[in-house]
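seq/struct pair 1
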Amino acid sequence: MINQFRKLNPINLLLLLAYTFFMRIAIFNETHAQLNFDFLEPFARLLINIDLDNAFSPSTNIFLAAVLVFIQALIFNRVVNNHNLLAKPSFLPALMFVTGTSLFMPFMILSPALICNFLLIWVIDKFLKLGKTPNSITTVFDIGMIIGVGTLIYFPFMAMIVMIFLALLLFRSFNWREWVAGLVGFITVFFFLAVFYYWKDNLSSFYQIWKPLSNKFPSVFKINYNDYLVLIPVAVIIILASLQLRENFFRSFISTRKGFQMLFFMFIVAGASFYLKPDFRTWHFLLCVPPGAVLLAYYFSNAEKRWFYETLFLLFVLSVQYFLFV
C-alpha cells in the first residue's frame, strides 16, 4: 500500500477515499444516541449565532467528519508536495493524515479542532512561504488574522501566535514590523469582536474571554494508559523517521530543514495548548496531526526495505483497528 501511495497516481484518490471510510468502520459500528458539535466558542456566538449542537444525526455527523478529513488530506498533501518537504511528490502525506485522524474515536466526529485543521494547514502553507518572499509583513498579518478566526472557533488555537515568532526566527532575519504585524492581525479580529460586545452593551463579558490565560499548567494528569497503547506504533515510526531525518538533515535544502524544525515546534505547541481549555477533550490533539503526519510521511517516503515498511504500516493500521474495536 505504501508503494502505491508513493506515486502521484489519480487512482490513489479513490483508494484514499475508500481508506478514509475503512478506518472509520469501528465508529460506524457504534450506536450513538447523540453527538454534539459546538461549532464556535460561546463568546463568539454573540457575533455569529449558529447553533449546530443537535443539527446532525450521529451517522451524518460521522459521515461529514470523514468527508472533511478527506478534503483536508488532499489540501495538506498539496501543501507538503508544493514545498518539497519529502524526497519526491506523493500521496503519502494524505495517507498519513487520514491515518492520524483515525487514531481515536473522538477524532472521528465533528469538532472545533477538526474545523481548525483547515486553518492550521493554511497557516503551515503561509509559514513555509515566509523564506521565499522579500517582504512578508502582509503574509504575517494574514497569519495573525487566521489565528484570530481560529480562536473564535476553538480558544486553544490562540497558542499558534507563539508559532508566528518561532517561524520568523527560523525563516526571516529580524524585522520588528513583521513581529508586530502578526499581533496586529490577531488583535484586529478581536477588536471587531470587542466593538460588537460594546454595541450590545456587554463589554464586561468580553473581558471574561481571557480568563483561561490565567490558568496554571496542570501538574497532575489522570491518564488511562490502556487508551493510548495505539500510540506505540506511532512512536516507533516517529523514532525511525527522526533517525532518518538526522542522517539526511545536512544533505537537505535549507528551506526543508527549517520547515521540519517549524513543524516540530508546531507539534509541541499544538499539544501543549490543551491547558487553555479546562474541559478539553481528546479531539483537541487533532491539531497535532498535520505536523505529525509530515514526519510519518517522511519515513515512508525514504524507507528502502519494502518488506519492512509495508509490514510496519500494516501492523500500524491493524493496531489502530484493534484498539478502536476493543
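seq/struct pair 2
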Amino acid sequence: MGMKVGIIGCGSISKYRHAPEYKANPYVDEIVFYDRNIERAQELADLFDGKVAHTLEELLSDPTIVAISDCSSNESHHVFSTQALHNGKHVLCEKPISLTVEHANEIVRAQKTSGKNLMVGHNQRFTRAHQKAKEIIQNKELGKVLTFRTTFGHAGPEGWGVNKTNSTWFFKKERSGLGVAGDLGIHKVDLLHYLLDDHITHVSAFQGALDKVDENGQPIEVCDNIVCSLKTKQGYLGTAAFSWTYYGEEDNSTIIYCEKGIMKIYHSNEHQLEVITKDGEVIQYKLENIQTNDHQTNSGVIDSFIEAIRLDQTPLVTGEDALSSLKVILGIMEAAETEKVVHVL
C-alpha cells in the first residue's frame, strides 16, 4: 500500500515539480490538493488524478495523509508547515524555509516536538555534478579549497509564475521579502554550505532593482540583482552574484579553486563538471544537465523526501540546514542595505 500525500498551494512549483514527481514515485498512491483558490486545486487534481481538500482543516486532519508539501508563498510557510507538523505529518517545505529567523525557528521547533521529518526543497544538493564535486573536495583530490565563485541568474520569475505577468508575488515586498536573494541566492548559499562542508560567517553586498518593473511600470520593491563577497568559518573566500536579469541564457555555475586545481560546475553545457589540474590536465565529467525553468527534469527532491520517510532517515536538507542558509541571506540583505560587512551568527 503506497502513501497518500497532500500539497498546500497549487502554483507553478506544485504543477511542474511536486505533483509530477509524487505521481512518478512508486511509493505514492494518491495526491490531495489544497489551495485558497479552489479552481487551482481542482485543475491540478484533474491533471494528476488526485483529490481536492476544500479546507486546510480537511487536509491536515485526514489521518490517511502521511506527508505534506508546503508550496505556499514565502510568507506563509511558518503557518502551514508548523500546523502540518503539529498534525503529525512529515513536511517538505519549499525554500526559503521562511522570511525571518523567528518564523523559521517556529517550524524547526514544531519538527522537534512532532518528531516528524522536515525537509526543505534546496534542490541543488541533489544534482549528480554537485554530489561528485563534494566527493572530490571531501577526498582532497585537489588539496584544500582556497576560493570560490558562484552565480545563479535567469530572465526573471514573471515568465515562470502562474499568471506570467509583472504582477507576480515574487516582485512584492510583503510576500517575496527577499527578491532574487530569497529566490535564487538562497539555493547557492545552501549549495556552498553543502559542497564546502562549512558555513558562511561574514558577508558584504550591493543590490538593486536595476531593470524589473511591476504591473504599474514602477521599479519593483525587491532587488532583481545582488552581488556579494563571502567568507566561511574555515577561511575560504568567495563571490556570488544572483540575478533576475540574465536575458538570453540561464547561468547556474560554480567554480571552486583549490591548491592543486580548479573545479568548474555547470560551466559548459557539454560537461557538467570539469576539473583542470595545476599541470593543465583536463578531466571532464558528463553528468545530467541541471534543471532550468524551461527544461524540467526530475529534481530528486521528492524521491529523497519519500525515501527518508520510508527508511526513517534524516532528510538530506534539514530545517537546521535551511535556517543557516536563511541567516546568511538575511545577513546579505542587511549588508546591502547598510553597506557594511555583516557577521552571520
